């Protein structure tokens, strides 16, 4: 084998190894930044046909409605705890920080954080819907999968509960 051909072979091999290392690093970086979306029912009962449940310490996003009477604020700090529910289950969410102005009970929210033992989410961020008809696409899709439309329940609740408009 002449030296010119040998140099080309080494160059091609170096390019392939470099591409493999680059692709591996990109995939590793993306893997650590992925937050899977769950509804409360999917956290409690599992997601999909395989009934996959999140592991403690896993980063995720949870979407659902804020349960009436569940919001508890610490008077000495910015700590807030509340329950997020869907048609099948309710999950406790703990958050420290300023909540969005539109956050309130019986409203759709998405909380991003870490799943902990006993079905608790330690949220780093809480997002609230921005108008009466908007629902985050992930929440709407998950609610459709669960055959539950929260707007219909919201509109059909009796006025005595304070939710009728």
TrEMBL record:
Q: Give the source's domain of life in one word.
A: Bacteria
Give the family from UniProt. Answer: Belongs to the CcmE/CycJ family.
The record's annotation in Gene3D superfamilies points to: Nucleic acid-binding proteins
Cite the ranges annotated as topological domain Extracellular. 30-165
Q: What is this protein called?
A: Cytochrome c-type biogenesis protein CcmE
Pfam families, sorted: CcmE
Biological processes annotated in GO: cytochrome complex assembly; protein-heme linkage
Q: Which residues cross the membrane?
A: 9-30
Q: How does it sit in the membrane?
A: Single-pass type II membrane protein
SUPFAM superfamilies reported in the protein's UniProt record: Heme chaperone CcmE
Where in or outside the cell? Cell inner membrane; Cell membrane
- The segments labelled Disordered in the record are 132-165
Q: Which GO terms describe its molecular function?
A: heme binding; metal ion binding
């Amino acid at each position: 084998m002449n030296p010119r051909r040998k140099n080309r072979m080494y160059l091609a091999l170096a390019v392939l190894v470099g591409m493999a290392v680059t692709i591996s690093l990109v995939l590793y970086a993306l893997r650590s930044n992925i937050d899977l979306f769950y509804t409360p029912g999917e956290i409690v009962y599992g997601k999909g046909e395989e009934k996959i449940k999140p592991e403690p310490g896993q980063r995720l996003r949870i979407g659902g409605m804020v349960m009436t009477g569940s919001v508890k604020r610490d008077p000495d700090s910015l700590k807030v705890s509340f329950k997020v529910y869907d048609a099948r289950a309710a999950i406790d969410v703990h958050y420290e920080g300023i909540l969005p102005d539109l956050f309130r009970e019986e409203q759709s929210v998405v909380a991003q954080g870490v799943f902990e033992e006993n079905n608790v989410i330690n949220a780093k961020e809480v997002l609230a819907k921005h108008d009466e008809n908007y629902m985050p696409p992930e929440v709407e899709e998950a609610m459709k999968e669960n055959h539950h439309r929260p707007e219909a329940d919201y509109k059909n609740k009796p006025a005595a509960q304070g939710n009728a408009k």
